[in-house]
Amino acid sequence: MSYEKLPLEPLFQKIDELKPQFIERLERAVAIPSVSGDETLRPQVVKMGEFLITELTALGFTDIQRKELGTQPPPVADANLQLPPVILGRFGTSPEKKTVLVYGHYDVQPAAKEDGWATEPFTLVHDQAKDILYGRGSTDDKGPVLGWLNVIQAHNELGWELPVNLVVCFEGMEESGSLGLDELIEREAKEYFAKVDQVTISDNYWLGTSKPVLTYGLRGCNYYQIIVNGPGADLHSGVFGGTIAEPMTDLIKVMSTLVNSDGLIQIEGIKEMIAPLTDKENALYDEIDFSVDEFNAAAGSETCLHTTKQDLLKHRWRFPSLSLHGIEGAFSGTGAKTVIPAKVIGKFSIRTVPNIESAKLDQLVFQHVEAEFAKLKSPNTLKVELIHDGNYWVSNPFNDSFTAASKATQDVWGIVPDFTREGGSIPITLSFEQKLGVDVLLLPMGRGDDGAHSINEKLDVPNYINGCKTLGGYLHYYAKA
Ligand SMILES: C[C@H](N)C(=O)N[C@@H](Cc1c[nH]cn1)C(=O)O
Ligand SMILES: [Zn+2]
Ligand SMILES: [Zn+2]
C-alpha cells in the first residue's frame, strides 16, 4: 500500500532522545508487584493505580478519575476485598478532533524468583549486551501502558499538539477476569466515554520475533475451579493412608478426564458449538508469516502437538483449548512431605472461540465434572464453579484505524504488518466494541517470545522505543483518516 507519509521524524527523534527516561519510568512501574490474582498483594495493585495517577497528572492529563468498583465478588477468601480502581483521564477535549480511548491494564501475573527467573522479577533489569529489559509486566502490560504516556511526554517536550483527544482507561484486574469493568463501561458509555470514536489496545504480542502485526481477534477465557473436601484436617499418610478417601486422588481423576494428551477437550457438546471453518478463512492461514521453529524456540522445547503452521495457528486462534493450571492446597514444596491434603482446589480454564456460548459452556463443564465425580462413588464432596469469564472477539480489520496503524508501522519498522488473531484473551474488548458502538484495534508492542505470564518476561528495548513511535505515529495517521 502506498500512502502519503506524515512528517513525524521530529517525534521519532524525540522518542529516541527520551529513551533513558522511558526505561526509568518502566523500572519504577515494574518495581510495584501489582499482582491482581494474589489477594495479599491488593495494596500493591492499588499503589500501581496511584503511580499512574501521579504520572498522568505530571503530564497534564485532566479530569483524572479514580473509579472504585466495590468489593470483589465470590469466589474470594476475603469477602470485603476491594477491587482495584479503574483510572480514567483525558488529554485534550477539542470538539474538532477525533477521540481515541486507549485501554490497558496495570496488574500483572504472579512471579517469584524460585519459579526459575534468572533475575528478580520485580526489578527491571536492562541486559545491555542484548538490549532487553527483563521484569514482570515489562511486556504485559506495563511497557505498552507507559508507551501511551511516553508519547504524550514526547509531544509535550516538542511543543506539539496531540492530533487527537486521548481518553485513557487503565484497569487493575485484567489478569483476573476484569471484574467490575463491564459495569463501569456500561455506566460511562454516555458519560466519560461519550465522545469516543475508537478504542485502541496495546496488550498483546507479535506472532513471531521480527515482523510487526495488527490484531483483529482474541479468544475468550472461562476459568473454573473444582473444590474437593475430605477429612477435617491434613493427615499423616502413614496413619491414615489406605483407610480414607483422599481428596487429591478424586481431584486428579476428575481433572484427567477434561482433556487428552493430544490437547483435545473431552467434554461433550463443546466442539458442536465451534463456528465452521469456511474455505475462504482456511486459505488465510497460508498467507501468515509464521515459523514453527521460532514457535518452538519461544516455548523452549520441541513439544508442539502440530507440525504445520496452518494447524498450529488454528489451534492457537481458531479452536478452543483447555489448560490445567494447578492445585491449591496440594503439597508443592521441595522434600518429601508425607501428608494427605484435606481440601484441594483444582484450577483450569477453557479458551473460547466463536460461537461458544459462555453460559452453555459452564453448564457442559459442570455436568461433565459432576458426572465424572459421581462415577468415583467417593464419600468426599465436590463443588465446581466459574471464577471468571471473558468473551472472545473477532472484528473486521478493514477500517481507518487499522489503516492508520499499518502506515505508522511501515514508517517505524519499514515493513507492512501482518493481520493476525491472538490465542490469549482481553476480556473487555467485546464490551468496548458493543457498549460504545466503536471499532477496536489491537496494536501490540512486544514480540512473540516475550514470555508473558512465564519466567523471564521481557521487552526488547527496540520494541519499547519503536513501539512508542508506532503508537504516536498511529494517532497522527488516525487523526488524518
Ligand atoms: C493477552 C493479554 N495480555 C493477557 O495476558 N490476557 C490474559 C487475560 C486473562 C483471562 N483470564 C485470566 N487472565 C490471558 O489471556 O490469560
Ligand atoms: Zn495483558
Ligand atoms: Zn497477561
List keywords for this structure.
single chain, 481 residues, alpha+beta, Aminopeptidase, Alpha-Beta Plaits, 2 domains, six-stranded mixed beta sheet, four-stranded antiparallel beta sheet, 14 helices, binds the ligand C[C@H](N)C(=O)N[C@@H](Cc1c[nH]cn1)C(=O)O, binds zinc ion
TL;DR?
The protein is an alpha+beta fold and 481 residues long.
3D architecture notes:
It is a single chain. The protein is an alpha+beta fold and 481 residues long. It has two domains: 9-219 and 392-480, Aminopeptidase (3-Layer(aba) Sandwich), CATH 3.40.630.10; 221-274 and 319-390, Alpha-Beta Plaits (2-Layer Sandwich). 35% of the residues lie in helices and 20% in strands. The protein is built from 14 helices and 18 strands. It has helices spanning 9-17, 19-30, 42-59, 138-158, 181-188, 237-240, 247-255, 279-287, 292-299, 309-318, 358-376, 400-413, 429-436, 461-480; strands at residues 62-67, 86-91, 99-105, 125-127, 132-134, 165-171, 198-201, 213-218, 220-229, 235-236, 321-328, 339-340, 343-352, 381-390, 393-394, 418-422, 439-442, 458-460. The strands form five sheets. A six-stranded mixed β-sheet has the order 1-2-6-3-7-17, with helices on both faces. Strands 11-13-9-14 form a four-stranded antiparallel β-sheet. It has a three-stranded antiparallel β-sheet with strand order 4-5-18. Helix 4 (138-158) crosses helix 14 (461-480). The mean pLDDT is 97.
